[in-house]
Amino acid sequence: MLQYDQLSLNIPDTQKPRVVIIGGGFGGINLAKKLKSKDFQIVMFDKQNYHGFWPLLYQVATAGLEPDAIAEPLRKLFDDCDDFHFRLVKVTGVDTALKQVKTLIGDLPYDYLVIASGSKTNYFGNKQIQQNAFPMKQMTDALNLRSQLLQSFEQASMTKDPGMRQALLNFVIVGGGPTGVELAGSLAEMRKHVLPSDYPGLDFSLMNIYLVEGLDRVLPPMSPEASAKTRQYLEKTGIQVKVKTMVESYDGETVTFKGGEQIRTQTLIWAAGVQGSLIDGLPADAIERSRILVNEFSQVNGTQDVFAIGDVALMKTPDYPNGHPGVAQPAIQQGALLAKNLFRLSKQQVPEPFKYFDKGSLAIIGRYQAVADLPKKLHLSGFVAWIAWLFVHIWYLIGFRSKLIVLSNWLYRFFTYDRGTRIIIRPHVRKDDTVAHEILAKSEML
Amino acid sequence: MLQYDQLSLNIPDTQKPRVVIIGGGFGGINLAKKLKSKDFQIVMFDKQNYHGFWPLLYQVATAGLEPDAIAEPLRKLFDDCDDFHFRLVKVTGVDTALKQVKTLIGDLPYDYLVIASGSKTNYFGNKQIQQNAFPMKQMTDALNLRSQLLQSFEQASMTKDPGMRQALLNFVIVGGGPTGVELAGSLAEMRKHVLPSDYPGLDFSLMNIYLVEGLDRVLPPMSPEASAKTRQYLEKTGIQVKVKTMVESYDGETVTFKGGEQIRTQTLIWAAGVQGSLIDGLPADAIERSRILVNEFSQVNGTQDVFAIGDVALMKTPDYPNGHPGVAQPAIQQGALLAKNLFRLSKQQVPEPFKYFDKGSLAIIGRYQAVADLPKKLHLSGFVAWIAWLFVHIWYLIGFRSKLIVLSNWLYRFFTYDRGTRIIIRPHVRKDDTVAHEILAKSEML
């Protein structure tokens, strides 16, 4: 058994400047990659030992990809780097005066600290939704949702009560951004191509997929053209889109919208908001809307040697007065530039300000159905956008093995329409569901 | 939330004879496959919704394969069969007088019942080992072990106390059968090719792998030639083999062997015994050494229409007075023959007695290192046996997608020596390990 006094970070002392990176996401790994060749010691902390390719997380949730296909072990990514040190531990705070990070294991002095901790689900203070809804931010979320989907169909096969059966076949996705749209599209494909032959006793014309968005269109970050096309695709696939609709409450059985409408559902998926994953010890005026305010060099307001990049950072620029979108590209580009800038700063040279190059946005609804906003206000949809989406995602996926496995799965799915990972490894059960708990416990599945 | 009175098995009534199969393992699925074309209604119960290819489970545990690659959804396997019904529910017992199976959801009458529920870990009554050891029988076992292995190295990187660090680097595998041997070989390959570059701060010459066997040789079910060759391979790879050694106790910190020797270890893997997964309601004299006694037609002693096949069955024949080995081939062959025999019985024809055709046994230790016992007392080892092992496993793996993914992983590993799934999705923590619990809870990893 572990004892706290036995534990220590064990980072070797060094003469080189030490860069501490919190988080192994897009920002953190691109920063570390570009720093590798320079004269720094790099220490990376993350509470998870792999880099997750979150754009494909929804495919894990809908049994189209295995989780291991979108996860690259962080130690493997940097095993060719001499002075790179990874520690699987959570960073709890920073002491900017002493220039130390604080972790659950111990403290570590830094020369430069880069906070790249990303974002987490935002329930907007609604604890009931937090308790009952299914988020979609990390791997366990996707696996719990996968189990929940499959368990719902199994239970629906064994339910006599038509009201409960309908509740098991109603799926409500809250959040009309890319995550919600892609999840809805994927569920609709399952409903059409896979589920009827898996569950011949169930009538899948009764399965409802709702996509709920608070603003006035789906895919609000994309162009109106992309939104309109996406809505068309979604409705053609039989998804019921509700815009300008906000969730009031969800008790695990019924979701109530502001305005009073209710839907009985056992599965409410919350893809409706994110907030930054903050750490303690930053200046109070450096936090705005749970993101960390930084200047154009990614320096945290009120500090010299603390930086923030990616989703957790809020860099206000003329083009992006509310900060950059919480997608991969800003994190990747900020990480790469910061590596260059840390090198310059360590040589007392002038750093380069960040200018975001928006390479465009993509979203996919189904087979041959995608939308793309490209630079110079070019909008694509349909087959071309679909091919672009596939290509971009394989390109940016980290790790040769992952590319191989994902491509194999996609080719398999393209030709067979099948989704190969329809397996429940760890059943999901709500804490208050005593009957389900009892059944699973007696089945030795808990 | 579920209510018991809402649940029902919902199996449609039928004029055809109903065959109820408990278990979707090698025996159950081969029986169902061969029955498909005949005039039966087939109902399959399993507490898990997929068929697991357990011969490759050890590769999931040692981060060489993803779990989804060795799991085939049962509904998918039989989606082309009109009168096949799957229910994800545990069968608790049988009433042979009323000819009904009892499940946690409800009862179902049968015409023929086939118990193909397989086997589970046997701790020989030692509750302390059951609480502290890592079994290797089902998917969650392999994933827990994978997490434990990776977490051990992470913790070892952060441990100041040399005694604890050594305990984290000592791995004791109890059971010198194929499971234990293949696991040991796989761990040795990780130690040699992967771990030193993943954990540059750790000295892997300190990592010990022990393989402990109670009988006088490893691989007791195989030939003495195979055992001797295997021992040679194991020791050449640096595995410490202890035969004629039994475990007295294991408290989670130290394993004590009969005779007094002790080894400090945080990871004791129990691959030392199995017992049949029985159900209630069978005649008492039909159970022997926790397996179900059957005649040469797989009929359970003392019943007419209840059968048992595979690991759970004990069929004594002149060639196999203690029953057939608990491997795939007897289950596959018994399942196929039983399908033929059920057809004959339903037509009042004479069934055919079972005669096991032993196609041979294989075990793998490492790259180019395998042993094979073939019919006519032919023994192979080395490269030829290794190729045979690879080929046979891909051949018998169920599902085209699985074959594709496994082959991709093996090709990738062959050329890079890398193991791609070194990820901890759900950390493992022992119930009594309060410090680890606290750290994981504060890291939001629980």
UniProtKB/TrEMBL annotation, chains A, B:
Residues in External alternative NADH-ubiquinone oxidoreductase-like C-terminal domain copies: 359-415
GO MF entry, a single one: NADH dehydrogenase (quinone) (non-electrogenic) activity
UniProt-listed SUPFAM superfamilies: FAD/NAD(P)-binding domain
TM region(s), chain numbering: 378-398
One Pfam family recorded for the sequence: NDH2_C
Reactions accelerated catalytically: a quinone + NADH + H(+) = a quinol + NAD(+)
Signal peptide segment: none
Name by which UniProt lists this protein: NADH:ubiquinone reductase (non-electrogenic)
